[in-house]
Amino acid sequence: MELHTEADGSGVPLAVLLKRELCNQRVEKPDILFGEANKSKKGEDFTLLVAKCHRTPGEGACDNAGDDDTISVFAIFDGHNGAAAAIYTRENLSNNVLAAIPSNLTSEEWTAALPRALVAGFVKTDKDFQTKAARSGTTVTFVIIDGWVVTVASVGDSRCILESAEGSVYSLSADHRLDANEEEVERVTASGGEVGRINIAGGAGIGPLRCWPGGLCLSRSIGDTDVGEFIVPVPHVKQVKLSNAGGRLVIASDGVWDALGFQEALNYTRGLPAEAAANRIVKEAVSSKGLRDDTTCIVVDILPPEKLSPPLKKHGKGGIIALFRRRPSDELSEEQTDNGCFEPDVVEELYEEGSAMLAQRLNMNYPSGNMFKLHDCAVCQLEMKPGEGVSVHGNMPKHSRVDPWGGPFLCSSCQAKKVAMEGKLHSTNSQSTVQLVPK
User: Fold this and answer.
1) Tell me: the pLDDT tens digits for 220-267?
2) Cα separation of 410 and 372, whole Å?
3) CA distances (Å), 11 to each of 14, 22, 334, 336, in order?
4) Residue 279, number of CB atoms within 10 A of its CB
5) Closest-CA residue to 417 (of 81, 216, 191)
């Protein structure tokens, strides 16, 4: 039998090497199991659940696809002041994100370009929705699973958490409620908004902090055109890579998180498959606080491929964690363990950024030619002639050190939106009448 030499000098049979390679190929794509649950109060919560979505935009891109070169997409859209923004975002955001990624990228480049594309897709969706003359808005927690890489983009107060196979809990989203984010309060006021509690007849302020005009409790959302451009659609983005032992995601609207803590919600899922876990979380949230708001939850299990996983048994309390935490020696053969089919549970952070500044969010360090469509607007993908676009670095002095190619570029309307979001047009907003009708 042919032998190959490893680093320590020991001979390894070719058959063993081939088995290792086959094992590595098998764990390249996880199994995705998911379920959702909802209790409706206002009818303004919407979800998107697609186990297999094409990487390229177009009609039906995020219908369930059949080929292997796919991603999974899960999202919650928690609308307010009506359902229009949530519905529009559900129907258009995925394509807007995918359209911002060039089609000639390698798998690694595609993953690296995704955070910037998410920013572009969120801003484009918000900009396009403004033309609908609707006053509603929506929070968004948008999750893309690409192999073992999980990328979460969020605006508002819906949240996404991850429990790793080891049992560690990670927050993958940000809370953009003004009460919970002092930096966002400072940004909104610096951009021309007023932040305060409802004040009736000169008494002490009551209720949560709100942005005026409009009375919105959030500093970021899609829609809310009547509040002001300083309520921005620029998402917080976090990207992590799981080990091939997998993990569990819980994505939920504030109807859940106002009632349950992260660990409490996870505790209710012990021993339950995804759909039953989502139902249990919603049931416990409503039991705790009553049905005060739309209460929606999605649970997603990212698991080693079925052929390498032991059959799911009926465990008692803690069963799911026991299954996730299993050591290779517990339930796998010695040969599987020796072949290195499973790695230690490590969640690696690849990227995190929450700035509201487009120049910072669209600027990337890797080669521009691979990550941008150089003659298209970096936000809305409008094709422009050379020299027509405005650099996102346009506010920098000419002697500043920026990429020599000067981009990415924005069309004139996206540049106007960028300027408005940065508060440079807030003098017109300051003349608006303060409304005491909160959203």
Assistant:
1) 999 998 888 999 999 999 999 999 899 999 999 999 999 999 999 999
2) 12
3) 9, 19, 19, 19
4) 20
5) 191
